[in-house]
Amino acid sequence: MTAVFTATAGFLSAFSSNFALLVILRCLVGIGLGGGPVLSAWFLEFIPAPHRGTWMVVFSGFWTVGTVLEASLAWAVMPRLGWRWLLGFSALPSSLLLLFYGVTLESPRYLCMKGRKTEALVILEKIARMNGRTLPRGILVSDSQIELDELSVSEDKELLSPSASGDVPLGQVESSQGGISLLVTLLSPELAKSTILLWMVFFGNAFSYYGLVLLTTELSGGQNKCIPAELQLKKSHDVSYRDVFITSFAEFPGLILSAATIDKLGRKLSMSIMFFLCCMFLVPLVYHQPQGLTTGLLFGARTCITSTFTVVYIYAPEIYPTSVRTTGVGIASSVGRIGGMICPLVAVGLMHGCHRSLAIILFESVLMLSGVCVLLFPFETKGRQLSDTVPRSKLQNSFT
Q: Which of 34, 64, 125, 388 ranks highest by number of CB atoms within 10 Å?
């Protein structure tokens, strides 16, 4: 559904007859893109815990690949064919996603939670055949079933990892429940702290990420000084797609940093270090710097914020049980989008109003607050098995 929504609205926007229709269709594209957490949560549930961080970084890397390819496409298409062709070509990747729908496996955890164990077992057997393995003997069990039936299953009979004995069952949140019920679950005593902190980190991450992308345009290419608003408006039409293409490559070092640290230092420490490093890169920009130094500092800051963005999208699905995993990440991502929308109005607005130092200080404050929130997360998820249930506070504290 997200692929259909994104591709259809994206393709139709190329034929917009007026600006209002273009804005409406691009908003619909944004709604479709909001379904992205479904992909990450689905992929996460197929990866063994010891390698989850590394493979999720690889998964996130395709965001950066898409960013670079889109910048390349704009560089090639816009000067020659115009924006309509760019929007049309940009809709193709989402439509190609539909070709893989027929071979995409459903999550066995989801099927078990819905009581469709036969279908889950068929998928697990298919996965075992593809990997040249055989399934362990025994019955297929899930965390919620163990808790509800008070079963004791030995390790050699598990096909899906059970939780620790201190878990509190959620009552298997059904898909028929409305959004209010799911939100209540996310704000339950067991999840409230993690949920609120996650919303703050997503907000700060998106605010800073998109702010740094915009700052690259504001502070690069000779726009290092305050100029009148009418001249800024005139220059805004002169976009250097070559510079956009080059600065997009700043995200690749961020991915490398994420891959190198996430399974060694853990999710929390990796994110907090990158948030604070990003602050350090931005400190000199409070004052005017030479163009070369400005570009280097922005490159380093964007590398760090890309790393935190990558890690938080890995950490977020790991802290939620299967029953609310995608919903939890989706709502957190939505809060992040609010940060992305506010950023141009506030921070970049300050830049245009010749309040450069105040804008940089604002970014510094948001980054510092986000780093502190990361340190306050109740538990680390490195090497921890996914769960269908919510850990009790004392269990969470053991992972701190």
A: 388
